[in-house]
Amino acid sequence: MSTLEILGSLLKEGLLVTVSLTFFSAILALVLGFGSGLARMSKSKIIWFIAGTYVELFRGTSLLVQLFFIYFVLPMFGLRMSAMVAAVLAIGLNFGAYTSEVVRSAVQAIDVGQREASVALNMTRQQMMRRIIIPQAFIRMIPNLGNQLIELFKSTSLVSLITLTDLTYQANVLNGSTLETTKIYTLLLLIYFVLAWPLTKGMNVLERKLTEGRF
Amino acid sequence: MFDFQYAIEIFPTILSALRITISATIVGFILAFVLGLVLAMLSRTKVKTIATITNGVIKFIRNTPLLVQLYFIFYVFPSFGLTLSPFVAGVLGLGIHYSTYLSEVFRSGIDAVPVGQWEVGKALNFTQKQTWTRIILPQAVPPIVPVIGNYFITMFKETPLLSAITLVEILQQAKILGANSFSYVEPITIVGILFFVLSYPASLLIKQLENKLNKKYQV
């Protein structure tokens, strides 16, 4: 097989899964991260405890173990799902736990004067969070969220181990049938780099744009 | 559903594979530490080409998945005459991958040392090497110990990836047990618990250390 044919086969079979997996699990992680990050600052002990348990549990074990647990163990309890759903769930839950810490630390880093100002303006707690705290905290989160996104993108390669046809899985299939090992894995590394690099650069640009004249 | 009898039965087998997991973590970490320090110093040299190449290598490694790097080391290196055992390939992949992360940490630590400290080295007529080992590094490393510790835990949690290159660490052992008995519930649950039981207390310990250091350096 020529280099071009290998490249074509990798991209044709695997790219869509890798990209859509990154997209959907990033959204899930963001939602879970914001939810649990804010919940960990809640005054309600129950909410605080649930959010804390979720975060520590998913940060304390490996993503691959979580992936296997969701894909191989949950069906034994009657929860059967496709490899794609299991992958989005595992990656989303795992990175949600890390995002939770990013959200929490950014919110807590907001100057106490901002809270006092909202109280002085007679805002409700909800108004304060929505109009004053979150918009400022979000800008602080951008660099960390960017790093998380790159890590998440790279971790999608793990789904090849639960037989989901992403770039890495397709490379393994090709390797099994053509034995062009050097070409295949070199190309695979390059594809990941070419995809991740603009993501890194893009987040840097976004960060600069948003923080202009702020700090 | 969850068969405790069976779980107790297989526990020792999984535990015996923990030795591999832990030694891969430790050897990989030592490699990452040393290589990370070298990369951090190389990326700061005055020789422009070396610094550029080092930064390029760091960027490339950081922007590609560890799993693919492991495949590359394990499957591609042999075609260049370098056949490695799963353990060596795994440790090499883990060490190289995380050295790029640690190099950033070292760099931040080194950057935090005031410029005046370099001038002191010059004023005292220290050689370049003496300045690094006696003045800069002793001040640069202690404040970043917690961050380095967190990377140690992260690496520990990444070791299951080595199962993909056929190393029998705890996850691979669990999969083998699961395949034999057609029940993945107990072995994979045990692996999850083992990871949590080891990494959670470690992370609490590091948090404590961080608080202590913050007080000491008044960050």
Set down the secondary structure blueprint.
The complex is a heterodimer of chains A (215) and B (219).
Chain A: H1 3-39, H2 45-60, H3 63-73, H4 83-108, H5 112-120, H6 125-155, H7 167-178, H8 181-211
Chain B: H1 4-42, H2 48-62, H3 66-76, H4 86-111, H5 115-123, H6 128-140, H7 145-158, H8 170-181, H9 185-217
Question: What would you note in describing this structure?
Answer:
- Chain B: It holds the Pfam family BPD_transp_1.
- Chain B: One of its GO terms (molecular function) is transmembrane transporter activity.
- Chain B: InterPro entries: AA_ABC_transptr_permease_3TM, ArtM/GltK/GlnP/TcyL/YhdX-like, Ectoine_EhuD, MetI-like, MetI-like_sf.
- The complex is a heterodimer of chains A (215) and B (219).
- With 215 residues, chain A is mainly alpha-helical.
- Helices cover 80% and strands 0% of the residues of chain A.
- Chain A has one domain: MetI-like (MetI-like fold, Orthogonal Bundle), CATH 1.10.3720.
- Chain A contains 8 helices and no strands.
- In chain A, helix 2 (45-60) packs across helix 4 (83-108) and helix 7 runs antiparallel to helix 8.
- The termini of chain A are far apart.
- The model of chain A has no long low-confidence stretch (mean pLDDT 93).
- With 219 residues, chain B is mainly α.
- Chain B has one domain: MetI-like fold, CATH 1.10.3720.
- In chain B, helix 1 (4-42) packs across helix 4.
- The longest helix of chain B is centred in the N-terminal third of the chain and has 39 residues, at 4-42.
- The N and C termini of chain B lie far apart (51 Å).
- The model of chain B has no long low-confidence stretch (mean pLDDT 93).
- The chains are: A mainly alpha (215), B mainly alpha (219).
- At the A-B interface, helix 2, helix 3, helix 6, helix 7 and helix 8 of A face helix 2, helix 3, helix 8 and helix 9 of B.
Protein traits:
heterodimer; A: 215 residues; mainly alpha; MetI-like fold; 8 helices; 80% helix; B: 219 residues; 9 helices; MetI-like_sf (chain A); transport (chain A); Amino acid ABC transporter membrane protein 1, PAAT family (chain A); transmembrane transporter activity (chain A); transmembrane helix (chain A)
